[in-house]
Amino acid sequence: MSEQLETITPLDPFDTLNTIRDTSLKTLNIMRDASLKSWSKLMIDLVSSEAYSQATSRWLDTYLTVSQPFQRMLDITMTQTLMRLNMPMRSDVTSLAERLTNVEMRLDDLDAKLDDIHRAIQALAASKPAADPSAKEAH
Amino acid sequence: MPFSSFPMIPAALQSELQRIEENTRTLLRVSTSRATVAQTPKEVIWSLNKARLYRYIPVVSAEQRHKVPLLLVFALMNRPYILDLRPGHSFIEYMVKQGYDVYLLDWGAPGPEDKELKFDDYVLDYLPRALRKLKTVSGSEEFSMLGWCIGAILTTISAALRPNNGLKNLMLLTAPLDFTDKKAGGFVRWVNDHSFDPEKIINTFGNVPGELIDYGAKALKPVENYIGSYLTLWDNLDDPRIVQSWHAMNTWVTDLIPMAGATYRQLIQELYRENRLIQGKLIIRGERVDLSRIRANLLNVIALADHISPPCQSESIMTKVSSQDQLLLKVKGGHIGMMAGSGAMKYTWPHIDSWLAARSD
């Protein structure tokens, strides 16, 4: 800090201001970090406490209890609206997606079988020259 | 209009105003945009429903490469690109450069049609199919598997249920497996509270929203996550290296995905509350998960400052498995920082590489 003060140009107000600003910012940052550290420790102890667990669980439970009927109402309204518009409902899209996944699984099974066949052919091809007498004669 | 176009403003003030303007721009940019992530070149070699299996393009010649391929399995409720955050700071890029044939299983984001997906499905339908493809593409019957967080639960269950499927090396990172201590960490306390009803969450949402899971994770260290992180950015707005790193991490943190309802039910009820996995009572599609059937070489990496999966949840597996070759590695850092923090390249990745390299040829 003393070095900085020595390099200040007294006639340049911005230089002086900058130095003062930097010094005070540094002090403020040190104070801020120290208070954050203790605050953090306090908060970690708080969120790990039994009381916090209970409070959060109760808050979540209340939120879910209150929101469930609205959610259900929204689902029913949406289903009815889509039915009237002759459009597919969420359940239709969901079952279609499930069927697609099943088709994908079947394709994957076929892919596995193809790989097995490919491997068997390769093994057969590799063993054939040794078993072929004409190949031996040629050598 | 730039401040230099006002000659009456002194130069010092002009530069100060310019600095403030640039910082504000940077702040706005990083807080409102997505960083470019997951840039290591890769190809999709298999897919099923939302899941994708990626193979990273090798940079080392086939002769110099390790013979045993490596499969990375990340958690279900976050994007796996945390393993490939940005060039120069990517675990995947690092492992590819070390000569591994690297594969990544991305579970994807479950839709409403996936709410009934359970651990059973992930372990017995998705994982074996992905492994089959990996074996076909790599041409190796043996493989190494690295599971992180919930991914470690999945890989552990898989290793116990199918010990003869070619698994040579099993690596677990911050694995939440043992919930004997009901007071270890905030998560365990919260989900064991009698008012906490996972069934109600599933009935309301179907899949558990990413925001809810995110809140749970962030609330464990509220000051660091809600204030500290932004202060770090504010203090370092002049440093493009730190800004870039913060931007990439913030992109990952805010990229939330839901968790399949049935999996969440199993996780809370059967694991967190009833602790069935470590007790050998977990049943997956009619089969009991017996950890003593795990014979693969085991590396268990624990983060010393992990507040999500405290070390006590990961340590006890060492005594449950039959692996002759096993190592418990304790590293600096937290749940994510251990693998993606600035110290990961120094404290974690080289240890994983040296352990795995000795067992991959």
Describe the structure.
The complex is a heterodimer of chains A (139) and B (361). Chain A is mainly alpha-helical. Among the domains of chain A are: 1-48; 93-139. Chain A contains five helices and no strands. The longest helix of chain A has 42 residues, at 90-131. Chain B is of the alpha/beta class. Chain B has two domains: 1-33; 35-357, Rossmann fold. Helices cover 43% and strands 14% of the residues of chain B. Chain B has helices spanning 11-32, 91-97, 119-138, 150-161, 186-192, 198-205, 210-219, 222-235, 240-253, 261-273, 276-279, 312-315, 317-320, 337-340, 344-347, 349-357, and strands at residues 42-48, 51-56, 70-73, 102-106, 143-148, 167-173, 283-284, 287-288, 297-303, 326-331. In chain B, strands 1-2-4-3-5-6-9-10 form an eight-stranded mixed beta sheet, with helices on both faces. The model of chain B has no long low-confidence stretch (mean pLDDT 92).
TL;DR?
The complex is a heterodimer of chains A (139) and B (361). By secondary structure, chain A is mainly α. Chain A has helices at residues 2-7, 13-47, 50-84, 90-131, 133-138.
What topology does this entry show?
The complex is a heterodimer of chains A (139) and B (361).
Chain A: H1 2-7, H2 13-47, H3 50-84, H4 90-131, H5 133-138
Chain B: H1 11-32, E1 42-48, E2 51-56, E3 70-73, H2 91-97, E4 102-106, H3 119-138, E5 143-148, H4 150-161, E6 167-173, H5 186-192, H6 198-205, H7 210-219, H8 222-235, H9 240-253, H10 261-273, H11 276-279, E7 283-284, E8 287-288, E9 297-303, H12 312-315, H13 317-320, E10 326-331, H14 337-340, H15 344-347, H16 349-357
Parallel strand pairs in B: 3-4, 3-5, 5-6, 6-9, 9-10
Antiparallel strand pairs in B: 1-2, 2-4, 7-8
